[in-house]
Amino acid sequence: MDKEKIQRAVKDILEAIGENPEREGLKGTPDRIARMFEEIYCGLNEDPKKHLEIYFQDEKHEELVLVKDIPFYSTCEHHLVPFFGKAHVAYIPKGGKLTGLSKLARVVETVARRPQLQERITTTVADAINEVLNPHGVVVIVEAEHMCMTMRGIKKPGSKTVTSAVRGIFQKDAAARAEVMSLINHK
């Protein structure tokens, strides 16, 4: 990441909106923004599949695994403002291939840490799990509030966008899909 270029760009933006980048409160802002971008966009050059190590090759568990309410923060690629929410990730292992539960959260985190679309987070997470673990099925549900709808434009705070990606058995088996949705919605 070119932090010096980011610093120059932030200084230019501050000047363009009529601010003085040298005034006391703004002096360090270009550097702070560059360091923040380095942190919040750390997923740009990272493959989310690398987190999906198969820890348990010989387990006989071929029942639902669900990690729900995984918090995430991302940035809308259209407006460069945040959106945030939670992801629910479920899969049914096949052939004893299980990954660590925290690995599912790491996949969400890696995919979210780049300028992004919510729809792309949802499908990328589902596709990564499907490709690496080759499970019977995968469901990923993402719920998020978009600041581009809250603080600008239509100005509707509290509205949530929900996206889903369904793979494998969950596409064909309504009862399996209903079980996942029931568990996600159960508080």
Automatic annotation (TrEMBL):
Gene Ontology MF term list: GTP binding; GTP cyclohydrolase I activity; zinc ion binding
Record Pfam families: GTP_cyclohydroI
Binding site for Zn(2+): C76, H79, C148
Enzyme Commission identifier(s): 3.5.4.16
Top-rank lineage group of the source organism: Bacteria
InterPro entries for the chain: GTP-CH-I_C/QueF, GTP-CH-I_N, GTP_CycHdrlase_I, GTP_CycHdrlase_I_CS, GTP_CycHdrlase_I_dom
A biological process term (GO) from this entry: tetrahydrofolate biosynthetic process
Residues annotated as domain GTP cyclohydrolase I: 6-184
UniProt xrefs under SUPFAM superfamilies: Tetrahydrobiopterin biosynthesis enzymes-like (SSF55620)
Keyword Transport annotated: no
Keyword annotations of the record: GTP-binding, Hydrolase, Metal-binding, Nucleotide-binding, One-carbon metabolism, Zinc
GO CC aspect terms: cytoplasm
UniProt pathway: Cofactor biosynthesis; 7,8-dihydroneopterin triphosphate biosynthesis; 7,8-dihydroneopterin triphosphate from GTP: step 1/1
Catalytic activity entry: GTP + H2O = 7,8-dihydroneopterin 3'-triphosphate + formate + H(+)
Keyword Metal-binding in record: yes
Family according to the record: Belongs to the GTP cyclohydrolase I family.
Subunit record text: Homopolymer.
NCBIfam families per record: folE, PRK09347.1-2, PRK09347.1-3
Protein name: GTP cyclohydrolase 1
Species classification: Bacteria, Bacillati, Bacillota, Clostridia, Peptostreptococcales
